[in-house]
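Reopening this one. Same input as before:
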Amino acid sequence: MGKGRIEAFSDGVLAIIITIMVLELKIPHEAELTALQPLIPVFLSYLLSFVYIGIYWNNHHHLLQAVRQVNGNVLWANLHLLFWLSLIPFVTGWTGENHSAALPVAFYGGVLLFAAIAYYILTQVLIAYEGRDSALAIAVGRDWKGKISVVIYAIAIPLAFLSSWLSLGLYVLVAVMWLIPDRRIERALLS
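Same output, byte for byte:
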């Protein structure tokens, strides 16, 4: 089956996720700049989550550009990824509203960890469908960045109970790693 519907559906879900997250930013009742100060933790958690959703949207787009078609297994693997991404607004709000307390930060990392695993599964299902010698399989290669991300999340989750700020710093580190564009799929498609 064609891949257009999965792309459109996924784009719509990601747009809704961003919309839900921004609705957590409550409008102050005062017109002074100081009224924004209590929103800083919520805004910072929103900012990090917005970046993560953007990273997933960008990489998901590249991933689907590298394949010709999808099948039922791909649809389910994609829904699995979207499930974990749909939890980001909840953990974003929980983390921001509780000023980065340990448990919400650990849960935030858990959602990031399972989203990364789901993305890996989606990639593997696409490679299995396209073939081990496909452009996607060659482009993904050993996927060191993906594997390193999972390890960092696994370290950051228990670290949240010692220092939620160090844990959040590791989440930011992973986001920065992925902000540097991964051109493997683009290069594979051009060759």
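So the earlier flakiness isn't reproducible anymore. For the record, Residues 4-190 form one domain.
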